[in-house]
Design brief:
The protein has 1 helix and 9 strands, in the order E-E-E-E-E-E-E-E-E-H. The model has no long low-confidence stretch (mean pLDDT 96).
C-alpha cells in the first residue's frame, strides 16, 4: 500500500496490460484511475466487466468505441460511460491516450499494489478481482 496520498505518473513506464496497451494506475478504496495508451492498430476485443462501471475521457488521438450495439469514433475531449455488464470493444487505428475511471476497483488493473493502492478505512474491502 502506498505511503502517501499523492502520486505522479511522470517518469513511470506504463504497465503492459494487453499487447499494445500501456497502463499507469492509482486507486483508493472505491475508485480506480488509469492513464491508458494504445499503440497504433491496437484492438481490445469485445468484453464486459461484471462488477465495474467504466468512464473514459480521450486526451489525444482517436479510437472507435462500441458499447452494446452503438459505435462511435472518439477524439480528444470525448467521453463515454460503460455500465457494469455491458459488452464493449475498442480499436485505435492511429493510437490514443485516455483517462479511465473504474468503480469498484478491479484488482487486475493494479500493476503494483504496494505503489498503486492508497487505502482508507475500508482497507480495499470493496475491490473486485476483475
Amino acid at each position: 500500500m502506498a505511503d502517501s496520498p499523492f502520486e505522479t505518473f511522470d517518469g513511470r513506464e506504463p504497465h503492459p496490460l494487453f499487447p499494445g496497451v500501456g497502463l499507469k494506475a492509482v486507486a483508493g478504496d472505491q475508485v480506480f484511475l488509469g492513464h491508458v495508451t494504445y499503440a497504433a492498430g491496437t484492438t481490445v476485443a469485445r468484453h464486459s466487466h461484471e462488477h465495474t462501471e467504466q468512464v473514459m475521457l480521450v486526451l489525444d488521438g482517436s479510437l472507435t468505441m462500441t458499447i452494446g450495439e452503438a459505435t462511435q469514433e472518439m477524439r480528444a475531449g470525448d467521453v463515454c460511460v460503460v455500465n457494469r455488464g455491458v459488452e464493449h470493444e475498442l480499436h485505435s487505428a492511429d493510437g490514443v491516450t485516455f483517462i479511465e475511471a473504474l468503480g469498484p476497483v478491479p484488482l487486475d488493473h493494479i500493476p503494483d499494489p504496494q505503489r498503486d493502492l492508497v487505502l482508507g478505512d475500508l482497507g480495499g474491502s470493496t475491490h473486485v478481482p476483475r
